[in-house]
Specification:
By secondary structure, the protein is an alpha+beta fold. The protein is about 30% helix and about 20% strand.
């Protein structure tokens, strides 16, 4: 279709990508003289796919957030149904795998903030993964392709038990074909952050049923076993995000964003990212405005390992606290406190 003009307005310039149900083109809106992207539905797709295509338009049209791709219009030309959406320049998030801890926290907090905005308006993405996220040259994220997004008033257009999403990033409830809520997106984001921090996915298999079963039943390797230099506080946030039980995850994207910034305070000053092979963040100005109540940052010190781990597990269930370090002796506790500057040092008085 390159060279064609749809609706005598959108001149198709280049192919950006294609999938099983649609093709995405770069185009020029000749009326407004701006570059846009056209997502064109392929012919002969299922009726349920057509309905999801229109759901995307309904879902995204009501969102207006700098971290979410904007939709401008939905139209039809000679049997070709298409969405007119924001043309997003930037680097795919996959190019940032792996990243330093402060960059993982900064990017993750931005994504969580954008998801929180969508969730507050009843929209669940259902397919959060690196391929659906771009990072601008200035270090800002943009969530794209809400083709599976579910608006609040949408009728179910898939059969009960049908799995929707990408298997490597899918939540346990999605893997089982169960009804989901916004916490499924936060699980998927946790998988994305696991991959950003360690360079690998928590679950891998060439067999899709086996992969889905891993999400439901299997515990992943602790991130620090794959990346020993990762701060324990960041590991705790990621592990909480990918809890099997949604009730044990962060309950909102806002809480997850706050926990990421509390775990890695330097992330709030992460700025410009270059388009080089590895992301380089150079600015001292915040990459995005941070307006939220930060959770309490705790260091837990106790020489009784079982008691310490039990206490940390209890704290991890709260969205308003994050453990940024743990110690089994007084000297380690002192060094952690001087390094992390927690709000609270919780310790055995005998130490």
């Amino acid at each position: 279709m390159i060279g064609r003009k749809l609706r005598k307005r959108y001149e198709i310039i280049d192919l950006l990508g294609d999938g099983s149900t649609s093709v995405v083109y770069k185009a020029l809106d000749t009326r407004l003289n701006r570059t846009v992207a056209l997502k064109v539905l392929l012919p002969h797709v299922r009726e349920s796919t057509q309905k999801r295509f229109f759901q995307e338009a309904t879902a995204v049209a009501q969102l207006n957030h700098p971290g979410i791709m904007a939709i401008y219009d939905i139209d039809e030309d000679n049997g070709h149904y298409f969405l007119v959406v924001e043309y997003v320049e930037g680097t795919p998030l996959s190019r940032f795998i792996p990243s330093p801890p402060e960059h993982v926290a900064s990017l993750g907090a931005q994504i969580a903030d954008a998801l929180h905005y969508a969730h507050e308006r009843g929209v669940i993405h259902r397919d959060v993964k690196p391929a659906n996220i771009k990072v601008s040259a200035e270090g800002y994220v943009k969530i794209m392709d809400l083709g599976l997004a579910l608006p609040p008033d949408a009728k179910r257009v898939t059969a009960d038990g049908l799995i929707i999403g990408t298997p490597a990033y899918i939540s346990p409830e999605q893997a089982q074909g169960l009804e989901i809520d916004s916490r499924a997106d936060l699980y998927s984001l946790g998988v994305v952050l696991y991959e950003l921090a360690t360079g690998r996915l928590p679950f891998t298999s060439d067999d899709i049923p086996a992969l889905l079963l891993q999400h439901v039943k299997q515990m992943p390797p602790r991130p620090r076993t794959l990346n020993p230099s990762m701060p324990g506080a960041l590991e705790s946030v990621i592990l909480k995000a990918i809890e099997k039980n949604p009730a044990r995850r962060y309950q909102t994207g806002q809480a997850m964003a706050a926990a990421l910034l509390a775990a890695m305070p330097a992330a709030a000053t992460v700025g410009k990212a270059t388009q080089s092979v590895g992301p380089v963040f150079e600015s001292d100005t915040p990459a995005y405005p941070v307006k939220r109540s930060a959770p309490l940052r705790l260091v837990v010190a106790d020489d009784h390992t079982l008691l310490r781990r039990t206490l940390i597990s209890y704290i991890a269930e709260r969205d308003d606290m994050v453990v940024v370090g743990e110690a089994g002796d007084g000297e380690t506790a002192l060094n952690l406190t001087l390094d992390q500057r927690p709000n609270v040092l919780l310790l055995d008085l005998n130490m």
